[in-house]
């Protein structure tokens, strides 16, 4: 009788362990899948970070070009003003010279 009860309890324990093993295996499989997804996401985030870095560098280069162009426009504007001033002064001087004659 006692042996029979012990065998019955052991059989019940075995069935519980099988059920627990199935649950644990399922959890393990989900973790493996999640790890694969996490690895994939990690890689994609790394690629995205590299793209963003390249875009930032391109924007920085573009900004430097805009600054250089702005400086050139200022320099050319100053040169044009200087030429206009020289032209005006030359015109005044020529009128004065012509008035003398």
Furnish the topology, listing elements before pairings.
Blueprint: H1 2-100
Protein architecture, described:
The chain is mostly helical and 101 residues long. Helices cover 98% and strands 0% of the residues. The chain has one helix and no strands.
Index terms:
single chain; mainly alpha; about 100 residues
Compute the separation of the termini in Å: 147 Å
The number of helical runs is 1
Instruction: Please mark out the parts with pLDDT under 50 across 5 or more consecutive residues, or reply none.
Output: none
Largest sheet: none
Given the helix and strand composition, which structural class is it? Answer: mainly alpha
Q: Strand-residue fraction?
A: under 5%
Portion in helices: over 70%
Count of individual beta strands:
0
Radius of gyration: 43 Å
Please write the string of helix (H) and strand (E) elements. H
User: What is the mean predicted local confidence, pLDDT?
Assistant: 92
**Shape designation:** rod-shaped
